[in-house]
Design goal:
- There is one protein chain.
- By secondary structure, this protein is of the alpha/beta class.
- The chain folds into two domains: 18-246, 3-Layer(aba) Sandwich (Aspartate Aminotransferase, domain 2); 252-367, Aspartate Aminotransferase, domain 1, CATH 3.90.1150.10.
- The protein has helices at 18-28, 38-51, 64-72, 90-96, 116-122, 144-154, 206-216, 239-269, 298-307, 332-340, 352-367; strands at residues 55-59, 80-84, 101-105, 127-133, 157-161, 182-186, 199-203, 276-278, 291-295, 313-314, 341-344.
- The strands form two sheets. It has a seven-stranded mixed β-sheet, sandwiched between helices. It has a four-stranded antiparallel β-sheet with strand order 8-9-11-10.
- Helix 3 (64-72) packs across helix 4 and helix 3 (64-72) crosses helix 7 (206-216).
- Bound molecules: pyridoxal-5'-phosphate.
- Pyridoxal-5'-phosphate binds at residues 61-63, 87-88, 90-91, 133, 161, 163-164, 186, 188, 199.
Length: 369
């Protein structure tokens, strides 16, 4: 166990193969303009079919998708947006760039999703939106309905940042991203499917979809003309990304199965290691994106695993402690994750012997006296 395995087990890695190459090559044999067109519409249609969304609008990435939502909501200077203190920084920056003040609320200890009571305590007359992040494909224990009614009572928009949640469903059976006004997905390299960079907006609201389509295309109602009835930027996709995305969609269901098996194998392999706590998942409806854990002696464990050829990654530190935000407040859950949260190797082509090796290396670390 003590010698390093070769090759190193990465914490995350996208998985592309012959299917992606074939679709890209087919397109490039007769390439067109490469910018978004028929393949992109097909990819959006596949995402609608998979998630049950009435509208899917793909964009450059899962950060500008959130920014487009903020623009569609008219968020600007002086407005406040409530964001969980445990999330990827894009969940906050996408609204901060529009001039919003970001107000952080702590997360639930079991799910790391926004705590509904903490979110409620942050509401002010200036609040414009609540951003619910489906952390690692999980949904809040308090229930999504608690957020829907909170947002309705407060007269604010409920935005779902479902970047980590493709393939995960609420207990009611609805795909994540589709219970609030609008949801956002990401197809960046570590996600369950990737187009290198990429994002998507999901909504069942016709008016929101229309606003988002204008925003992503310079505020015009169609390409090839220069009349701009609204304000917009350029958040368009490309046909090459769509070809990759279409091939990836063909693999999504198998990946969901594999991600759940990976989670279960880590749970079994670490069951007798009390220094490592994994989060509970209802795998009937949740596809964990990464294997996330709360661990003792995090830095020393990471160093031990690195020597054993295993890469891990620290989970997000509280956004309130990032130099660009620096907000006071009590955030015990986000703070615990900031000091003890660790992502174990989690990519979908991880094989069982690698998982067993990682579990054994972790057990060995805590056994050393
Ligand atoms: C919760 C969350 N929101 C937003 C993003 C940003 O997505 P992208 O990297 O596609 O811009 C990510 C990316 O990891 C994320 O995890």
């Amino acid at each position: 166990m003590s010698q390093t395995i070769n090759p190193v087990i990465p914490q995350m890695e996208p998985s592309f193969g012959a299917e992606e190459a074939e679709l890209v090559n087919q397109y490039m044999a007769n390439p067109g303009f490469i910018t978004e067109y028929k393949r992109t519409a097909e990819f959006e249609q596949k995402l609608c079919e998979f998630t049950g969304a009435r509208h899917c609008i793909v964009v450059n990435n899962g950060t500008v998708s959130l920014m487009a939502i903020g623009m569609a909501l008219g968020i600007g200077d002086g407005d406040e947006v409530i964001v969980p203190n445990y999330t990827m920084i894009a969940s906050a920056n996408a609204f901060a760039v529009l001039g919003a003040r970001i107000v952080f609320a702590d997360v639930e200890p079991q799910t790391l999703c926004l705590d509904v009571r903490q979110a409620e305590a942050c509401l002010t007359p200036r609040t414009k939106a609540i951003v619910l992040v489906n952390a690692n494909g999980r949904s809040p224990q308090a229930g999504i309905d608690a957020f829907i009614s909170l947002a309705a009572r407060a007269g604010v928009a409920l935005v779902e940042d479902a970047a980590q949640a493709l393939g995960s469903y609420y207990p009611c059976g609805t795909h994540m991203g589709l219970r609030g006004l609008v949801g956002s997905l990401s197809f960046s390299a570590p996600k369950i499917i990737s187009t290198g960079q990429g994002g998507a907006l999901l909504t069942n609201d016709d008016a929101m979809a229309e606003k988002l389509r204008y925003i992503k295309d310079f505020g015009r109602s169609s390409g090839g003309q220069d009349y701009h009835p609204r304000f917009g930027l350029n958040f368009k996709f490309t046909e090459l990304q769509a070809c990759v995305g279409l091939a990836q969609m063909g693999k999504l269901r198998d990946r969901m199965v594999r991600k759940k098996q990976i989670q279960q194998r880590f749970e079994a392999g670490l069951a007798n290691v009390p220094q490592v706590r994994l989060f509970p998942h209802d795998l009937g409806r949740i596809t964990p994106w990464f294997v996330d854990a709360v661990v003792e002696e995090r830095d020393a464990l990471m160093a031990h695993l690195k020597t054993a050829g295993v890469n891990t990654r620290k989970m997000y530190p509280p956004l309130s402690q990032q130099p660009i935000y620096q907000q006071d407040g009590s955030f015990p859950v986000a703070e615990e994750i900031g000091s003890k949260g660790l992502w174990l190797p989690s990519h979908s082509h991880l094989i069982d012997t690698q998982i067993d090796y990682v579990c054994a290396a972790i057990a060995e670390f805590y056994k050393r006296g």
